[in-house]
Amino acid sequence: MLGLKMPVRDFDAIVVGASFGGLAVARQLRGEVLLLDRNEVGTVQTSACGTPLWVPESLGVRNSVLEVHDWLEIRTPTRTVRYDLSRVPFCTFDYQVFCEGLLAQCRVRFLRTSVSGIQDGAVVTGEGRFTARIIVDCSGWRRAVTGGPEPRRHSFGLETHTPLQDKGLTFLLDRRLIPQGLGWIFPVGQGSLVGLGSYVGRSKLKPPLERLLRDSGVGAESYHGTYFPNRLLPPTVGNVFAVGDAAGQCLPLTAEGIRPALYFGGECGRIVQRVLEGRQSLEAGLEAYRRLVARYRRPYRVLRFAQWMAAHTPTRWFAMVTQLAATRPFLPGWWPRYGRFGPLDRSSITAAT
Ligand SMILES: Cc1cc2nc3c(=O)[nH]c(=O)nc-3n(C[C@H](O)[C@H](O)[C@H](O)COP(=O)(O)OP(=O)(O)OC[C@H]3O[C@@H](n4cnc5c(N)ncnc54)[C@H](O)[C@@H]3O)c2cc1C
Q1: pTM: predicted TM-score of the whole model, two decimal places
Q2: Residues 57 and 98: beta-carbon distance below 8 Å
Q3: pLDDT of 351
């Protein structure tokens, strides 16, 4: 990692946001690359950090894993459905260790500063203006350089760490707890993250979350939460690439946004590197990235429909569907396909070391 005392103003590429999407892009890049974030890398966690175990393993950050989970339960007022995840186990991981591990694989300059937008082709930050031929927006739902938040296209999640000792991953579907949303309990080695998510972007979730904690007999520590998108947004805006939540790539229904940000980030990074090396024009690179994302439109639509069902049909109907999906022949058909979505590879680690 290079220090940056005086900003060099012109770069080959600028990546805005140094969380999952930004780090996945940056670790593919070689050259004069500037990585910007308003926080130090890995210090501000917004996520429950649940993802398939193969994700940290294939990125060389297995040391970030806190707990491995072989099953997932969906609890509703009328029934509990258990999914066997053993063919593609999940894990919960330490956000800071994960992000610092990826940052160590990057050969970029990191600068902590807030980005306020693009003006005359330059990225405007608290530390001055920076230009680059290629700019990638990985700033999450705020979309700092691709036009700002998209109204009414976001879910909202709030969670807290608790001493609750639980096993497996749990989703709670209960209208009395949260209408048009879900709750979760994700064990993280020492205690569990307990949270609520609103599919319709309701952000006043602290009172119902406190009720859930009281009913579970545990106290809260500090709360964290934010918006996340629930539908695809444009993957390119003008000549700017967008990755992760900035491109609406968080999966609807399950609110899994880590894997898509890492997957599309890695693929976008590879395309950008080809452009930097002169093997592809910028226009062809933008088009290749748009085509890649377009290939996933259908599964996103299916998940969005399932999210709509979860939010708008009676919970007992949705619970019946989830129960059916947990049985043979359905589970062995869809679970491995879903669980293995977004293959990641170690090639850039080898190149960086
Ligand atoms: C409560 C909650 C729980 C969740 N749990 C899970 C889960 O268990 N598993 C899962 O897969 N997904 C989960 N998600 C969704 C997941 O967190 C996001 O989809 C994922 O973080 C998206 O990654 P990203 O890199 O695109 O954006 P982010 O992780 O949001 O990162 C954006 C980065 O940009 C920086 N930034 C923003 N604005 C600016 C600016 N103006 N200037 C400079 N820097 C800026 C931020 O500091 C941040 O580092 C959860 C979301 C929430 C809210």
Answers
A1: 0.94
A2: no
A3: 44
